[in-house]
């Protein structure tokens, strides 16, 4: 899907990929921050593959979770949060893997 966004459900809360619904990224996340969080997410996903089956895998998966929560793709649904809660969520520091 290089550069192309997946189609959204009518309510805008989910994307549909291969017939499966996934929670959409919070549309209020500023584009620069969204790009940064997506880079962090991809780095953590690579780290999960690198650490699979080791004691470090749990930390790598926690990094994926933190990035997905910051993007609004996991955790409390972004459409149920106040604007201040949403901003605090995406502004949370999500470090890159070592």
Automatic annotation (TrEMBL):
Basic and acidic residues: bias regions: 71-92
Sequence segments annotated as region (Disordered): 51-98
Protein name: Biopolymer transporter Tol
Source organism of the structure: Nocardioides kribbensis
Source organism phylogeny: Bacteria, Bacillati, Actinomycetota, Actinomycetes, Propionibacteriales
């Amino acid at each position: 899907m290089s550069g192309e966004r997946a189609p959204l459900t009518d309510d805008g809360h989910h994307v549909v990929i291969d017939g499966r619904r996934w929670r959409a990224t919070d549309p209020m996340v500023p584009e620069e921050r969204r790009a940064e969080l997506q880079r962090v997410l991809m780095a953590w996903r690579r780290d999960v593959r690198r650490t699979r089956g080791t004691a470090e895998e749990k930390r790598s998966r926690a990094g994926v979770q933190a990035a997905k929560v910051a993007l609004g793709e996991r955790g409390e649904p972004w459409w149920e949060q106040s604007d201040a809660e949403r901003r605090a969520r995406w502004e949370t520091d999500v470090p890159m893997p070592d």
